[in-house]
Fold each of these.
Amino acid sequence: MNTHSYSGGTTTHAEWGSGHPHLLITSDDVRLVHEILDDETRIGSGDDCQIRLDGIAAVHAIIRHDGHDDYDLEMIGSGQTSANVAKAAEEEGRTLETLHTGARFTAGDWRFVFVRDEFADHGRPYGGRPGGEGAHQRRQPPRPDYEGEGHTGAIRLPAADD
């Protein structure tokens, strides 16, 4: 497990973009895997999309890697999602859903599953496991200032005397 020490335990905050974020993409007869490498990944049938699929809008959905090292889904075309919490992107009046491992969505006949290694998936402190799902869990320290690190993968965690 990829953890970092600080005064008080471990954190699941990993290097920027780590955890091999990718999409499992399926239809009735096609199986694909797309590794998410860019800070913006467009899904659609248009030539400017990183994931080009037949039978959906030119730009059907966009996944953005945000400043908290999460991946947010914006559905532009119709589709279904498994997310139960949406957040508003107030500056543009959009609704985004933060993707964590196992999040599902559809576009046309295509089905998508987001996957990211647990050590880097910021969905729950410590992977949500100590004491079982839903049990009281201690809070992890604040996220590193990814913006201040220039997204280079370098992380500043509090020193033991901070």
Note: Confidence is low (pLDDT under 50) at residues 1-11, 126-133, 152-158.
Amino acid sequence: MKICIFLLDMSFNYKIDEVDRKILDILINNTRVPFTDIAKKLLISAGTVHIRVKKMEDAGIIKGTSLNLDYDQLGYSFIAYVGIMLDKGKRTKSFLTELNDIPYVTVAQLTTGKYNVFCKVRARDTKHAKDIIFAIDEIAGVNRTESMISLEESINDKKRLMHRIFNELKG
């Protein structure tokens, strides 16, 4: 399991201190590390770690957990990005509801510019991706789609950004 850490507007009531930053820094690098190991490393009690993590969860700084899978091992190594142009902006909500019913669409972003929605599709192969893209095309309100095939996911590292955010918060 991986703890997803999101920083919200810094106007919330919970103030992150140096101990919290150190706890989060350890969790960013290894979300499965036991609280007792964090406590030993920071020379505090495991109860303190538990309470601080709970407070950060309650404040919305730490949100949920997720599981990271090796999609190549599971046979879903094909990635396509699909830009979707809708007929009318007022159909966006109903479109997103239907798009959400396609489980192979793993990310969907409302965007400005050429596309109304830009999404990431994960498939087994090109035929499977074609079927998914055709299913997207069939959703009411879709004017047109443009697809791009990912040759390789060269960078996928949220840890660097999280570390940078914490360093900026220190200043």
Note: DSSP finds seven helices and six strands in the chain.
